[in-house]
Q: What sequence folds into this?
């Protein structure tokens, strides 16, 4: 089982895995570490699990500083088979196991180095209770800097924290896309088809916490995290 980090929005990262073979068993456990430069000031927001996630992943300890780098270890455990959920995985396909909102800009990477190894934070995965650790592979979009030459349309939401109304803005090409709000457990609490590139969402009925505004169109997914007060 290989693993990668993919930027899916201006302030959003997906951790994805790629099985080498068809898999419908128990994703027993996973450990991985994110690293970024301390000078960037990046802060990770509470992570969001996708719907029907095969395991529960949480921070393992606090953010740790080593020289000029920041490290955050994540660990997860699962007990139900994918076949039981009716959603087996196919070889060579990517599957999101965690979405991580963040604040700031810089380069964030999945890391195996001497520091992570010494803290039991190196990438490790077990399937059906057995070691099936693969490779950490790179995506070109892992870097989270955005420049004036970045042609990707942005999905923005404001204010944050929001009290009763969330405003959003995207590209005109996104009209017709599916806009959703997900809670911290990955449950969908709102959805609509975009009829315009800007709009407002009534969030008075949501409880306080971290949410993900997610836009899906043409097989592409972007997201923007916000806080509900």
A:
């Amino acid at each position: 089982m290989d693993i990668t980090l993919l930027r899916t929005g201006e302030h959003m990262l997906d951790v994805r895995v790629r099985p080498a073979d068809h898999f419908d068993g128990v994703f027993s456990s996973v450990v991985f570490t994110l690293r970024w430069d301390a000078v960037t000031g990046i802060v990770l927001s509470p992570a969001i699990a996708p719907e029907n996630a095969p395991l529960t992943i949480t921070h393992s300890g606090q953010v740790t500083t080593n020289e000029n780098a920041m490290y955050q270890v994540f660990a997860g455990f699962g007990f139900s088979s994918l076949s039981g959920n009716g959603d087996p995985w196919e070889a060579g396909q990517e599957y999101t196991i965690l979405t991580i909102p963040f604040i700031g800009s810089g380069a964030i990477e999945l890391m195996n180095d001497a520091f992570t190894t010494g803290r039991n934070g190196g990438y490790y995965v077990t399937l059906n209770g057995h070691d099936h650790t693969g490779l950490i592979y790179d995506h070109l979009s892992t870097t989270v800097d955005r420049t004036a030459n970045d042609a990707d349309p942005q999905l923005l939401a404001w204010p944050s924290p929001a009290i009763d109304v969330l405003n959003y803005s995207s590209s005109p090409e996104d009209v017709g896309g599916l806009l959703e709000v997900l809670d911290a457990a990955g449950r969908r609490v709102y959805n609509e088809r975009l009829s315009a590139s800007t709009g407002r969402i009534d969030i008075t009925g949501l409880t306080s916490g971290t949410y993900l505004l997610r836009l899906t169109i043409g097989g592409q997914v972007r997201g923007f995290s916000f806080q509900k007060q």
